[in-house]
């Protein structure tokens, strides 16, 4: 992804070469459009003095602008860290920062809130860029160290602090990993402070990106930021086949899109009776075999006659179940099933014309007819030659 001002080349923007996080901030999936930018505050109102700053991989933090610096979106600033300082880019200012902090439950009245030191100088930017250039070769070496120590983990990314005094190693693992020996190796080889941070497989997939089975970019790498847990019950409610190859995404977990329509299915299933509830008739006991959530139909079969299914509506099924609770039985399911009329499928005519899609294809040649014509032609030529041989050469010889 890239904005219009820095078109991509080989997957990376030409302008900033920042892999989708350019200075105009229009490439990032977490960008918030500042629709209050051109609006002036009422008289006497002071602007909100908190700033949103973004770092690598879309990580965002909020800082107090105690120095009242004049900052705008895209400015590179030096921010306070637990030890030293960090370098980030301003992504949002003004009243929208207050709304974002309220949405994320971040208090703006903290006395120990981190602050912005200054706009980044050229020296700060040089140190920051040189540290980021080291991240990729360090990641290759770090993965090799983890393999040598036989640790069941994967180093997914490395992020240097702006002053190059600390490196954060992001990793994924199925189980708990004892990486104390690995930290010693990292500290000895890389000569910097080390911090290990575990991330989920969904977060790793959102960072890497890709194309899903639907043919579009992954939701987690384009717009999705809230990774909710997905269970197999979501597939059961939507009557999907429990095939792990189809239900799993590129992260190896269940697809996030299984939760998109789950609430609608749950609301629709409220009018359906439970599938394990049996229907008692004078003809016999019927068991639910299939449900159609969209049309509101249910199929029942008598015990012992599993091949014969009878389709009834959900309202009819609820009516019969209520009669059964009053210890009453209906005669048979056929009475209700006969009342249903199957929907006639509409036959669509060709409004474009009677042209076939294969009208431009070359017609198939009939080899049998061609062969028959060739044989007939040969036979005719042979017959003519035989007739010519039988005729006399001239009339004089004939009279003699």
From TrEMBL:
Top-level taxon in the UniProt lineage: Bacteria
Name of protein: Regulatory iron-sulfur-containing complex subunit RicT
Region (Disordered): 357-400
NCBIfam families (UniProt xref): RicT_YaaT_fam
Biased composition (Basic residues): 366-378, 384-400
Source species of the chain: Flavivirga jejuensis
InterPro entries, per the entry: PSP1-like, PSP1_C
Domain PSP1 C-terminal: 114-199
PROSITE patterns xref list: PSP1_C
């Amino acid at each position: 992804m890239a904005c219009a001002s820095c078109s991509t080349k080989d997957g990376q923007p030409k302008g900033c070469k920042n892999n989708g996080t350019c200075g105009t901030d229009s490439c990032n999936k977490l960008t918030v459009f500042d629709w209050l930018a051109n609006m002036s505050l009422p008289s006497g109102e002071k602007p909100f003095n908190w700033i949103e700053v973004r770092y690598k991989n879309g990580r965002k933090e909020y800082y107090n602008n105690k120095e009242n610096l004049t900052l705008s979106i895209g400015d590179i600033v030096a921010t306070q860290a637990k030890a030293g300082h960090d370098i980030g880019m301003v992504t949002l200012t003004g009243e929208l920062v207050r709304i974002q902090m309220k949405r994320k439950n971040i208090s703006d009245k903290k006395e120990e809130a981190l602050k912005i030191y200054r706009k980044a100088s050229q020296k700060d930017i040089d140190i920051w860029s040189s540290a980021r250039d080291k991240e990729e070769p360090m990641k290759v070496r770090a993965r090799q160290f983890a393999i040598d120590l036989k640790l069941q983990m994967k180093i997914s990314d490395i992020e240097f602090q702006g002053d190059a005094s600390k490196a954060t190693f992001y990793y994924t693992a199925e189980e708990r990993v004892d990486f104390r020996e690995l930290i010693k190796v990292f500290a000895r080889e890389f000569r910097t402070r080390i911090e290990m941070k575990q991330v989920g497989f969904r977060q790793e997939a959102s960072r890497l990106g890709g194309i899903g089975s639907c043919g579009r970019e992954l939701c987690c790498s384009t717009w999705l930021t809230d990774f909710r847990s997905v269970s197999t019950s979501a597939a059961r409610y939507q009557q999907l086949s429990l095939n792990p190859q189809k239900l799993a995404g590129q992260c190896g977990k269940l697809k996030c899109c299984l939760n998109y329509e789950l609430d609608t299915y749950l609301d629709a299933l409220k009018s359906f009776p439970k599938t394990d509830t049996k229907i008692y008739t004078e003809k016999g006991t019927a068991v639910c075999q299939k449900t159609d959530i969209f049309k509101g139909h249910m199929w029942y079969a008598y015990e012992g006659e599993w091949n014969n299914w009878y389709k009834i509506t959900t309202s009819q099924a609820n009516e019969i179940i209520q009669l059964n609770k009053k210890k009453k039985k209906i005669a048979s399911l056929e009475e209700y099933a006969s009342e249903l009329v199957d929907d006639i499928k509409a036959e669509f005519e060709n409004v474009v014309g009677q042209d076939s899609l294969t009208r431009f294809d070359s017609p198939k040649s009939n080899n049998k007819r061609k062969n028959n014509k060739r044989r007939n032609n040969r036979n005719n030529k042979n017959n003519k030659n035989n007739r010519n041989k039988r005729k006399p050469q001239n009339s004089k010889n004939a009279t003699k």
